[in-house]
Amino acid sequence: QQPVQSPQAVILREGEDAVINCSSSKALYSVHWYRQKHGEAPVFLMILLKGGEQKGHDKISASFNEKKQQSSLYLTASQLSYSGTYFCGTEFWMEYGNKLVFGAGTILRVKS
Amino acid sequence: ETGVTQSPTHLIKTRGQQVTLRCSSQSGHNTVSWYQQALGQGPQFIFQYYREEENGRGNFPPRFSGLQFPNYSSELNVNALELDDSALYLCASSRTGTGGGYTFGSGTRLTVV
Q1: Mean pLDDT of the region A22-50
Q2: Which residue has the higher pLDDT, A100 or A52?
Q3: N or C: where does chain A have the smaller number of CB atoms within 10 Å of the terminal CB?
Q4: Are A23 and A69 in contact (CB under 8 A)?
Q5: What is the average pLDDT across B9-24?
C-alpha cells in the first residue's frame, strides 16, 4: 500500500525547479504532501482530492492524476527554506476516517 | 488555535519494559493517528482513533495499543519493548470528513536499550 516516491534525493541551487513524483498501486481517495525538516514534525503542505485538480501554495504546486494513481509536487524557483524531506501520503477509506500511508520520502537540498 | 502536543519529548527504556506516550490533539480535531518513524524513513501508520475507538490499524503487533479520551487526546502504549521499537513516535490529529490535512506533533523519541 505504501506509495512510491521518486527521486530519493535531489540537490538544487537556489532558483532552480524540481519535481517529486508519487505513485500508488491502489486506487486513491486523495493525496497529501508534507515537508519535514530535520528534527521537526512533518508540516502539511496541501491535499489533492480525486478529480485531477492542481493546487498551489506559494511557489509549490501539485497535481493529481486519479487514473494513473499518481501525484507530482512542483517546486518552482526553489529557496533555501525549501530544504527538507518531502513525503506524499495516500489516503484509503476506513470506517470512520481515512488511513494515511506515507511514502519513503524525497530528500531535497537547496544550496546557495 | 493550539497545535498538537506530545509528551515526553525523549524517553529511554529498557527492553521488556512498558511505555506510555501522550498526545493532545489540535483544537477542533476529533481524530488521532499514531505513526512510528525510524531514522531516514517515512512515518509508518500504527493506528487511528475516532470517537474513543480504534478505527484501523497498520502492521503492528497487539503489544501496541492506544486510547482516545473524550477531549480527543490520546495515548499510545507499548508493552514488552524490543530494541527495534526505538524510533520517533508521531501523533497527528485531523477532523474527519473535512478533507483537510493532518497536524503533527513534534514527536517522542523513544530509545530502547
Answers
A1: 89
A2: A100
A3: C
A4: yes
A5: 97
Those residues whose C-beta lies under 8 Å from the C-beta of residue B28, and which sit 6 or more positions away, are B1, B95
Query: Which residue is it, cell 537556489?
Result: A14
Put simply, the answer to whether A99 touches B48 (Cβ < 8 Å) is yes
- Best CA proximity match to B64, nearest among B49, B51, B47, B50: B47
Q: Is the minimum CB–CB distance between B102 and chain A shorter than 8 Å?
A: yes
Using the beta-carbon criterion (under 8 Å), do B99 and A2 form an inter-chain contact?
no
Tell me the nearest-neighbour CA distance from B82 into chain A, angstroms: 23
- Residue B45 CA: distances (Å) to CA of A34, A53, A101, B75, B92: 15, 26, 6, 15, 10
Q: A39 pLDDT band (50/70/90 cuts)?
A: confident
Report cis status (omega within 30 of 0) of the bond before A3.
Answer: no
Question: How far is residue A31's CA from residue A27's CA, in Å, rounded to a whole number?
Answer: 11
* Cα distance between residue A42 and residue B105, in whole Å: 8
